[in-house]
Amino acid sequence: MKLKLCLLAFFSMAVQMTMAGIKVTGPKVEMLTNPVGIDCETPRFSWEIVSSQKNVMQTAYHILVASSEALLKKNVGDVWDSGVKTSEVSNYIDFAGANLASQKRYFWKVQVKTNRGMAWSASAFWEMGLLNPSDWTAQWIGRNNPSDQLKDHTKVRARYLRKDFSATGAVKKATLYICGLGLYEAYINGQRIGKQELAPGPTDYNFSVKYNTFDVTSQVKQGHNAIGVILGNGRFTTMREGNILHFGMPQLLAQLEITLANGQKQVITSDPTWKITADGPIGNNNEYDGEAYDARKEMPGWNENGFNDAAWQQAEPVAAPKGKLSAQMNPNITIMDQVKPVSIKELKPGVYVMDMGQNMVGWLRLKVKGTKGDELKLHFAETLQKDGSLYTANLRSAETTDTYIFKGEGTEIWEPSFTYHGFRYVEMTGFKTKPSLEDIEGEVLYDEMATTGDLETSNVVFNQVYKNSFWGIRGNYRGMPTDCPQRDERMGWLGDRGVGCLGESYIFNNHLLYAKWLDDIEDDQKADGEISDVSPIYWSVYADDVTWPAAWFTGANMIYDQFGDKGPIIKHYAAMTRWMNHIKNDISKDYIVQKDQYGDWCMPPESPELIHSKDPARITDGKLLSTSFYYMLCGLMSKFAALSGHTNDVGMWNDLAAKTKEAFNQNFFHADAQCYSNNTVTANILPLRFGMVPEQYRAAVFQNIVEKTTGEFKSHVSAGLIGVQQLMRGLTDNGRGDLAWTIVTNKTYPSWGYMADHGATTIWELWNGDTADPSMNSGNHVMLLGDLVVWAYSYLGGIAQTEGSAGFKQIKLKPWPVDGLDFVKTKYRSIYGQIESHWQKQTGKFLWDFVIPCNTTAQVYIPVKNGQLDDASRSSVEKQNGKFQKMDGDYAVFTFASGRYHVAVNY
Ligand code: BGC
């Protein structure tokens, strides 16, 4: 009774306090808004608090989960009532009610109490997927087609599958569970279901298969209905036999669960009563080679009830893929943006070359007219040759060509379904007259995720590099992070993302995509602990390397640090331990790792045509790379052990780290020259950044880095993929932010600015991508970004967090106003809400607008003139409610509560 009264008091107070300007927004389950088809036992709840007031902190929350909307409205949590919990936690709160049932929809909301008032969130829901294998009554179906060819370049036509069915009464609810391998498009009564493209997410189908779930209540109607599905090849049917893993020919699993108004259930499942044909308009389709579409073969009404499918064949039952079927928890790919072409030229009669103005990833949507049987050919490439024709040497064997055959009926609108291209230029043939740019649109495809960051500076070179990074990063999300989107590769290379993933996470909410990829990596782990350098293993590369697999750990760390989610750390801790032990026991000798596969990959070479440097003075010892990385990973494992409840392991990892460090210094450090190994920038910067250099030598080791960079490299990029992951932060932390800034604003080789100045609109695979051998020079790779984006947000813009904080709960705003930089304007949307930092230097003043989201606090580092905080400056900051904490070098450090602030200090 007492409890009830107290709850009532809590609720009624809330109504009043909502008036005080507190809002609870974005209620999410597993970081998804109103998800359907969740299959985890303990979904986690998150929300944000928004207010125009300053200093808003959560003090308590109360979650209600109900079995119906009506009950929730009455504030009854019959499924779970968390009770009032005194807590600041507003993310990843575990559901702790009774067992959740397959397919059931749950409604929930949260009431939040803050020091400034209370508020309810809007009500939200989530729906469980098919939790038990026995919930699946559908069968896998497919059928081979005699013209299918896997040899050489895969030529396998799309499959069309259909089934008429009737709903015997009014439909209350209908849910479609579907997995079409490699890729599917689903229709009910002619209507496309969902906006996903290239779905489901790619996995190693021997271990894991993802299904998607859709609420199709509004598509299924009482009486006659039809379901139709098109299947493409994706990564299930190999693109290159013998070279890339092959899992099988396209196949479908679909289950449509209908609840009628009278409570009756009807289940429509894929089974051999379905009809199938490979004779539809979408012909051969392949991610490398493109898609062929013959509009003459369109079958109007094929996905509607009553279509005459007598000429189609009967679908056949096929074996299920070996992998475990589970709900896909990361959003699918979709069309995320559009690009309008900027120009078109007739290169020779009938051959047009169109320029999109941007190296983009996706496809073209055409609105065209033509005569029945005429064929259009679209050939995609990233760059042009001197004569204006396509440069395709860097695409290797990828044909990158879509074809369209006209049906000849007025305006025909078309875009492909089961391919994608990385391109800026398109050679177009088969047009009778010059195509009008008005009728062509580039569709930009990548995983559906919010753009969370924005950054602009006073420097045009840097801004172009940033823009190039933005396009490069989003162009390489394809249900997994890929190395490139254009040639016959497009693989999930681990090493490319080691630190890059952290930078990417500022610009895009890549949380769930990376969480999925970390699962892919564990899926592919061998019994002895070994993991592949590429995952999913469409290419399998088990090399016992350390630098590439390290991305598994840094990826999990990124998800924790940036998004505050320790789920992946807990999930993979045991498997990560297996890998660490494997490297220690099988690949190391006396704590020195004996193998390294790639070296300091893509070290800027000494001559323009080389891919890799041949100069021994530029090549860093592989054992140094792998051993220093192993040390860094011991540190992460120690952190992970503490976070995942393996506190007993902490000492073990620390001990292993200490032994590794000792052996490392004994083997690679030259006390006389005060440098590591052969004194490359990478050899010195790794131990410096990882904390392996004895204190008394730190300054001298750093001096070597500066001398090499300013001397031999004339203030340009002085390291390869491994070193560049630490370069910007390493220079800045040690007092040479000015040098980092010079490197970043350079337009000469080797630098990011050089790429932009030579026409790049993304980031190249090679520093000399315009002159090197075409066998390895993609125009859209993100690996060479290293720590550039992390540095731009967390150093230049100053959006960082204090040691030990996760998800930006304790923010550290610390900008680096390096000489030559007049302003930085940046935003980052954290899980608590928007963080902003916009600073500018103006005649003797440092002006700074910043925003700290509700339920967080910040340490704010204000740069002051000569490291002195004068009284006027101090009192102006204090007027803004900043509490002075300490002086730290050139900064005065204040603490601030949440809110929007403007400070102006002498500078
Ligand atoms: C890929 C890289 C990858 C490397 C490692 C290249 O072909 O494109 O991104 O990390 O191989 O060998």
Structural overview:
By secondary structure, the protein is of the alpha+beta class. The chain has five domains: 2-127, Immunoglobulin-like (Sandwich), CATH 2.60.40; 136-329, Sandwich (Jelly Rolls); 334-447, Galactose-binding domain-like (Jelly Rolls, Sandwich), CATH 2.60.120; 453-794, Glycosyltransferase; 797-906, Maltose phosphorylase, domain 3. It has 17 helices and 49 strands. The strands form eleven sheets. Strands 21, 22, 26, 27, 28, 29, 32, 33, 34 and 35 form a ten-stranded mixed beta sheet that branches. Strands 2, 4, 5, 6, 8, 9 and 10 form a seven-stranded mixed beta sheet that branches. A hairpin with a 5-residue loop joins strand 30 and strand 31. Helix 6 crosses helix 8 and helix 13 (727-733) runs antiparallel to helix 14 (737-745). The chain starts with a helix and ends with a strand.
Write the layout of secondary structure elements.
Blueprint: H1 2-18, E1 22-29, E2 36-38, E3 44-51, E4 58-66, H2 69-73, E5 80-81, E6 85-86, E7 93-94, E8 105-114, E9 117-120, E10 124-128, E11 141-142, E12 159-167, E13 171-181, E14 183-188, E15 191-192, E16 208-215, E17 223-232, E18 251-260, E19 265-269, E20 275-277, E21 282-286, E22 290-294, E23 313-314, E24 316-317, E25 324-327, E26 333-339, E27 343-348, E28 351-368, E29 375-381, E30 383-384, E31 390-391, E32 401-405, E33 412-414, E34 421-429, E35 440-447, E36 453-457, H3 460-475, H4 500-507, H5 511-523, H6 550-563, H7 567-587, E37 588-589, E38 592-593, H8 622-643, H9 647-668, E39 669-670, E40 675-676, H10 681-690, H11 698-710, H12 721-724, H13 727-733, H14 737-745, H15 752-757, H16 788-796, E41 799-801, E42 810-813, E43 823-830, E44 833-842, E45 845-852, E46 857-863, H17 871-879, E47 883-888, E48 891-896, E49 899-906
Parallel strand pairs: 2-10, 16-25, 22-32, 42-46
Antiparallel strand pairs: 1-3, 3-7, 4-5, 4-6, 4-8, 8-9, 8-10, 11-24, 12-17, 12-20, 13-16, 13-18, 14-15, 14-17, 18-19, 20-23, 21-22, 26-35, 27-28, 28-33, 28-34, 28-35, 29-32, 29-34, 30-31, 36-43, 37-38, 39-40, 41-42, 43-44, 44-45, 45-49, 46-48, 47-48
The structure holds beta-D-glucopyranose.
The site of beta-D-glucopyranose has 9 residues, from loops.
